[in-house]
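Recall that a protein's primary structure is simply its ordered list of amino acids. Everything else, from secondary elements to tertiary packing, is in principle encoded there. The following example makes that idea concrete.
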Amino acid sequence: MTRMDALPPELPPVLVRDAVRMALAEDLGRAGDITTLATIPPGARARAVMAARKAGTIAGLPLAAAAFAEMDPALHFQPRVADGTHVAPGAVLAVVEGPARALLAAERVALNYLGRLSGVATATAELAARIAHTRARVTCTRKTTPGLRAVEKYAVRCGGGSNHRYGLDDAILIKDNHIAVCGGVASAIARARAFAGHLVRVEVEVDTLDQLAEALDARPDVVLLDNMPPDTLRQAVAMTAGRVILEASGGVGPDTIVAIAETGVDYISSGWITHSAPVLDIGLDIAID
C-alpha cells in the first residue's frame, strides 16, 4: 500500500484574525503607536524585508500577514516562502510595503508570531529529523502558551510533527492522578469505556510494566509510557506486541529522543517543542533605496 502524504497544515482564518486582533490591541494600548505617530508623517510609505537571521523551519506567515492587514488593508504582504519551509540564514521570508505608520505599528506583533511559531516548527523538525530512521513520530502536548495553543500546534505540524489532543474535551487521557483517585488502572479504563462515545479514544498513562500488563487486559486504544528508560520501553514494546498504540513521554529532547525512538514505540510526545523551543531570530528592516 502506497503511503499517502498529509496535506499542508492550515489555520482557520477566524483563529488567525482573533489571535492577531488580540495581540495588536495589547500592543497598541490606549493611544496607539505614539513613537510612530510622533515621528512619521501621515503620508509616508515604506518597503520592508522580513528575513531569517538563523537557519530554521518557518511557521506563522499567515499571522504576520494578518497583522499588517488588520493594521491597514493598504499594506501589501508578499510571502517569499511557505510555512513548513526550511531556510538558511539570510533567507527573505516576505516583503511588506505600503503606509509606513501602519507597517511600523504592526511590526512587533508580526515578528512575535513569526519568530515564536518558527521556533516551535524548528524544534519539532529537529526532533523529527533525528528519528526519521525509526517508526516513531513526534507529537506535542498540552504544555502550550495560554491563548496560543491552536497556533503552536499548527507550528508543530509545520515542523513535521503531529498533534496530540487539543484540549480536555477531544480525547480521554487517564493520568496517574486519575488512577489514584479511581483506585486502579483497570477500573479507570472501564469507567472511561462506559462514558466515551464510539469516536472518542481512550489513552491511559502507566509508570511500570505491572501497570502496563493491567492496562493491556483492559484494552485501551493507546498506552502512554511515562518516564520509562529505554530498556524498560523495549520490554513494554515486546509485551504489547502491537495490540495497542504506544506513546513514550517524559524528558524528551534532542539528546534523548533517538534512544527512545529506537525502542520501537509508535509516538513520542514532547512538551519541549512548545514550552521551551527557542524563538527563531527573524528581522524586519526597512529597504533603503
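The chain has two domains: 13-120+277-286, 129-275. Residues 123 and 273 are 6 Å apart (CA to CA).
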